[in-house]
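Hi support team,

I'm opening this ticket because the web form for multi-chain structure prediction keeps timing out on my end. I have pasted the exact lines I submitted so you can reproduce it. The total is 625 residues across two entries, so I didn't expect it to be a heavy job. Is there a limit I'm missing, or should I split the entries? Thanks in advance, R.K.
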Amino acid sequence: MAIIQLKKIKKIYQQGELQIEVLKGVDLQVEKGDFLAIMGASGSGKSTLLYIIGCLESPTSGSYHFAGSEISKLDDDSLSKIRNERLGFIFQSFYLIPYLTLFENVLVPTIYSKKKLDFKKRAKDLLTRVGLQERLSFLPSELSGGQKQRTAIVRSLINSPDIVLADEPTGQLDSKSAAQVMEILATLNEQGKTIILVTHDETTASYAKKRVIMKDGLIYPA
Amino acid sequence: MDLSILLKGPFIVSVLKALRHGTLKTLFAIFAITFGISSIVFIIAAIDGSNLQAKKIINLLGPNSIFIRSGFGGKGTIRRMTYRLNMEDFRLVSKVIGVKSSAYMMLKKVNISVGDNNMKAYVVSAMKDFLTVFDYRIGVGRPFMKSEYIYAPKVCIIGTELSQELFGNKDPIGKSIRIAKTSFVIVGVFRKKGKLPSGRSLDNRAILPINSYRKFIEPEYKRFFAIKVKVRPDVSYDSIVQQIKKALLTNHAPDDFVVVTPETIRKFLNIFNITLSVYLGLVSVTALFIAGFVMSNIFSINVKVRAWEIGIRRALGASSSEILIQFLAEATLISLAGGLLGTVVGLLAIRFLMPMLNIPVVYPGMSYVAALVFSVATGLISAAIPARQAANWEPVRALRTRL
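Hello R.K., no limit was hit. The queue was backed up. Here is the completed structure from your submission:
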């Protein structure tokens, strides 16, 4: 069963008099357990598509079914709840909160979770799995790019989401750190996690099981 | 609005660390609030203190009383030479309709001693009715007897402070003291009366029966310091005061005497109170307004600088109301810190400034309540707009504004 189903998704940005149509009617279906790479040049609309999938932005028109429910009908609180419980985000520039330690950053999503779990233990386990168990009380400024992105991966996983969304996750990393990060994502996918990745980088995309190409606001098979 | 996140460990840590992260901004906001709150704490205590002062003075005057004292308008080199009231005045005042009882008082500063223990203190004359009209109540011993007002016996009644000075904790009744050049036997001690607004105590005096005073203290003198009357509660107070003034004006210029009533005390202190309240009120409102303005600005800068943080929190699942709560929580903590510091500064001001303004030092509970309410209100009101703005940002727009 498709966990994500996009039909004729359009996104138009209004800039003064100018209308910019970034997505021109995207159809996309993602199955549970998929590892999908959306490739494309910058400005192709791939990030916008990922943000729409991630419920961070709403489409101008079209329908988006997430796990059976129509997203456009949900209010802000319900969307926040979906982002919190069912989606995990990884960004190119990590977005770790500078005044919180690595460990505290990982726990940020749990602030907004209604679940009552032993998140601290889970955080430690996950951080051990990505090799950061020695760095718990480090601030983001004391970490390398690779370490920051691994922290962000753990943060995206802390609430056990159905899907992990990654926006250029290797964009600011050297090739060795990039490979480490992608290995981790590949392993997660092998363990059953659905992953959608946006990248312009061939090597990064090569870890995905499926690939599509985005061009001028439309999706084409690779 | 779901406030349960306020109790979550990671949330609390996050709020506290955010405040520490912006130390300079945080301290600036705290000091702004401190200034406003300390002036509010002080103003409330000052008003409370001066009300207490008014009550004390009115109590000192006693119930249903009018006090007439000599003005100091004369040009005499010795002040007592300017005492203007005389027997004719007393006779006129006593005849005013509504006056129930009346008494006059002469007084003089003299040497009072027991053995080698020597001090300067006031000695006061007591005619018949003096003790009741001037509200002297006997604590230990007895009042003067009727015959003691007629003859000039060497007896006296003293105040508690004088007793303490001369005899310590020993019973002074039956002992002799030397007042001016004559030895008197103490027959009673009057109960503590307290201090005049000027700070002078009424409890270190000695009282002599009128004829003893005339014979041994001031044989020649015909004028006195003050007249006091008790009025009948069924006759209009104002009309009695008017009649007394009229009676005194037959022989005197208006600044020869001062008529003191609870009303004049209240009026005088009210003017003082209103001036003080308006002045301090303006200061604190201005201070709080500035505090709110500073805080509002700090928060709007704060929210802009941390736009992407708001974005990432939204992406990680924070609802817009949870963003609002986060910023309001930060504002509230700043306010409480400012409120607490303001209270401390305010208390110090009460402790050291109020004695300079001659206001009794009080620490009213209202001050603390007001400090809490005004600090939190200032914080919440000034942070509300920026916080709401932050909460309503679209997550993506916030994320893309990384500085």
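A quick check on our side: Residues 306 and 402 of chain B are 8 Å apart (CA to CA). Let us know if the file doesn't open in your viewer.
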